[in-house]
Specification:
The structure is a homodimer.
Chain A lengths: L6 E7 L5 E7 L11 H5 L2 E9 L2 E2 L2 H14 L7 H14 L5 E9 L9 E8 L4 H5 L2 E7 L6 H4 L13 H12 L4 E5 L12 E6 L2 E5 L9 H12 L4 E4 L3 H5 L3 E6 L3 E8 L2 E2 L4 H11 L5
Parallel strand pairs in A: 7-8, 7-13, 10-11
Antiparallel strand pairs in A: 1-2, 1-6, 3-4, 3-5, 5-6, 9-10, 9-12, 12-13, 13-14
Chain lengths: ~290, ~290
């Protein structure tokens, strides 16, 4: 079911969000109340952080984004120092593994209660070498929203990393039905957005481009990390409005995320996309913490 | 936190969805695994069923809708006979209460596992007499989707009752910020849809009307029940395409749902709507099982 080295930390949170205590518990024991709003309403936020030999990657941006998501959901502001310690504790426990990950979850708590629920689950990563080297196929799917939805309708929580991912999971199943490995969302007004659990990076005219974050998507922590690295390598980067037509002239593309890292895209719907094996390997060496 | 008579039933489900066993457990003990996809992805479906003196209301339509939601999420088909027994067992335990409710949840299960998770939570209802007699204020909020989204983009799961309700909860908070009690969604192409946890019924020209179900909304079990009752009372009913402009000439409106029953709407945004106290009382007497 899960890796034998899996780690589960349960947090005792004050109504303010303050981390009062942390307990490492048996990962197989039931941990959540049946009325926890995480389970009954998907009403909470999360982050998944990569761990390279005990070192959490891009921890500060992940915690910043957790706080941003929590604010969008009117949750208590997460106690970032407390959460940082929890992540490090899980990372320490998994320090013997080349690659691992930890998911941190902050929910609104048990329905009718006065305090949020928090937990952290960590385990060694699966082997993503096929996705990272051979690449993945993606299917373009309508996200149903206009690209300005975060501004016009903030209650739709576009740009918050919530636990309500049923549509993301359904989109991925639809992509698989279409013979692809992952989905890539497009807004109703024709802008490429993001995947269900990954950001898009495309190479257009020698520039690494990713969709602007004001189109109702999550700002990518891995994408940002990658762009800093690229800049250091002399590869130009930019945020851009990207249409499905733009994708047709991309000479390389990647879906980037915290755990799978940079998966080169080898097809978008029926169109093959070249895989830049050398650049993909360099990206993944960096993201895995094997190079600086 | 919850009523002392609360009841929690945990189901042992086979990979096929078959109910193998049911255990009544301590409602306060942790019940769910930290990797349950209900809690990490909002990846499951639910129903909330009203119980009047031990009698589950409209049980068959609720179970039918559970099966429909499960199919939209590619979940194993729920074992409806098994679930019916679970609901009746919880209802029996709550039979001493005038009004109670039970929420049944079917999730995709623990991530990486091969079987769904199921549970049922029941407890006596809160007192909704103020909402049922004085009425509620609703705020119109953009749902962000076109009304044809269920047909064009089924992966968005419009019309499935999923656990991914973070936006529904956020919409209700936004309604409260606007001085209202509940939200009422409108499609981007100008059709009135549903509330976060309730269906709309309006009286237009002497006819009780509710939005057509092909606009990406949940078919309302309580609304359907109410329309059958209304027909028996000689009150005409119909499904209709309803615009915000139509709401302005409604001479009565209700938000109807399984537990709160029929809450008359006394204002939509800034416009007052007349409350038909007599008809509201008759509706709620019927929905509470106090009349046939």
């Amino acid at each position: 079911m899960h890796h034998p080295d899996a780690v589960l930390a349960l947090l005792d949170l004050a109504p303010s969000g303050r981390v009062d205590a942390v307990r490492l518990v048996d990962p197989d024991a039931p941990a959540l109340h049946a009325l926890d709003l995480a389970a009954t309403r998907g009403d909470g936020v999360f982050e998944t952080i990569s761990i390279g030999r005990g070192h959490p990657q891009a921890l500060r941006p992940h915690l910043t984004r957790l706080a941003s998501s929590a604010a969008m959901l009117d949750l208590p502001a997460p106690d970032l120092d407390g959460w940082r310690e929890v992540v490090q504790r899980v990372a320490d426990a998994l320090g013997g593994h080349e690659e691992a990950w930890v998911k941190i979850v902050l929910s609104r708590g048990v329905d009718g209660g006065d305090r949020p629920t928090g937990w952290a689950w960590g385990e060694p990563s699966a082997d993503f070498s096929v996705a990272r080297t051979e690449g993945i196929r993606v299917a373009l799917l309508d996200r149903g929203y206009r690209s300005d939805v975060a501004r016009t309708s903030p209650w739709l929580l576009a740009g918050a990393k919530t636990l309500s991912y049923a549509t993301n999971m359904a989109a991925r199943r639809e992509a698989v039905r279409r013979g692809a490995d992952d989905a890539l969302f497009v807004s109703t007004d024709g802008l490429v957005l993001e995947g269900p659990t990954a950001n898009l990076v495309v190479r257009l005219d020698g520039v690494l481009a990713t969709p602007r974050t004001d189109v109702g998507i999550l700002p990518g922590t891995t994408q940002a990390d990658l762009f800093r690295w690229a800049a250091g390598q002399g590869i130009p980067t930019r945020l851009a409005s990207i249409s499905p037509q733009d994708l047709q002239r991309a000479d390389a593309a990647w879906m980037v995320s915290s755990v799978r890292h940079a998966a080169p895209v080898r097809a978008i719907d029926d169109r093959a996309v070249p895989v830049d094996a050398e650049l993909s390997a360099a990206m993944n060496a960096y993201l895995s913490g094997r190079t600086e």
